[in-house]
Amino acid sequence: MQDTTLIAALLGLLEGLTEFLPVSSTGHLLLAGHFLGFESKGKTFEVVIQLGAILALTAVYAALVTRLVLRARQDDAARRAIVSILLAFLPAVVVGLMAHDFIKNVLFETPMLIAVMLILGGIVLLVIDRIAPRPVHHDALSLPFGKSLAIGVCQCLAMVPGVSRSGATIVGALLMGVEKRAAAEFSFLLSLPTMGAAVAYDLFKNRDVLDFSALWEIAVGFAVAFVTAVLVVRWVLSYISRNGYALFGWWRILVGSAALLALLAGF
């Protein structure tokens, strides 16, 4: 009981720490599960703790989202912001529905691929952090529709585990002239419909094999993921504004390299 509770807390902490950073929470969770020998039937544990992170983000942005919805009837800027986020969400809906089974049954079961993608993504993040064009968009809620849609296309790359949903959207936004903080904030807002839909679809697809027998471990993981994600979301925007994304690039390379060496050594 103590061992499983500790693992549940560790995985919940990992989910909360990494879900909204450009480091790939899915990659971290899958690698941790592989090395710890942890697996839940129907991925029930992983889905539920991800829901904890989504609810954390919802709590942080509840006031902003509520204000946008209430103002949308009479405020053109609010309507444009909502349409912009929904346009960015659209490509993930199409690709996710078409490739869901392949992603979950093939890509998610390949730890070596995850380790390599962590390393490559870290290199890309370091390079883009240095050479990104001068920003011309400083407000996450007023991006042009075409750029919002293009960021949504970039998000689809994150369906390969290890790429990172936030990493793909942030890199895409930076390349299109979005300021660093605004890029992260748009990524956060886009994650609300994207992650919500992904979790709901996962629960539906796996409804016949979901296993809630380990309710204590699930509750521990959910609670730790929720609290940690709230703290991370509140901290990360100010950190990125001051320091950029280099820390996260180096972290990806470090974790990916360690995982790759362990896998090559037969662990």
From TrEMBL:
Top-level taxon of the source organism: Bacteria
EC number: 3.6.1.27
Record field: transmembrane: 48-70, 82-100, 106-128, 182-204, 216-237, 249-266
Keyword Chaperone carried by entry: no
Anything else known: Bacitracin is thought to be involved in the inhibition of peptidoglycan synthesis by sequestering undecaprenyl diphosphate, thereby reducing the pool of lipid carrier available.
PANTHER family: UNDECAPRENYL-DIPHOSPHATASE
Protein's recorded name: Undecaprenyl-diphosphatase
Source species: Rhodobacter calidifons
Gene (name only): uppP
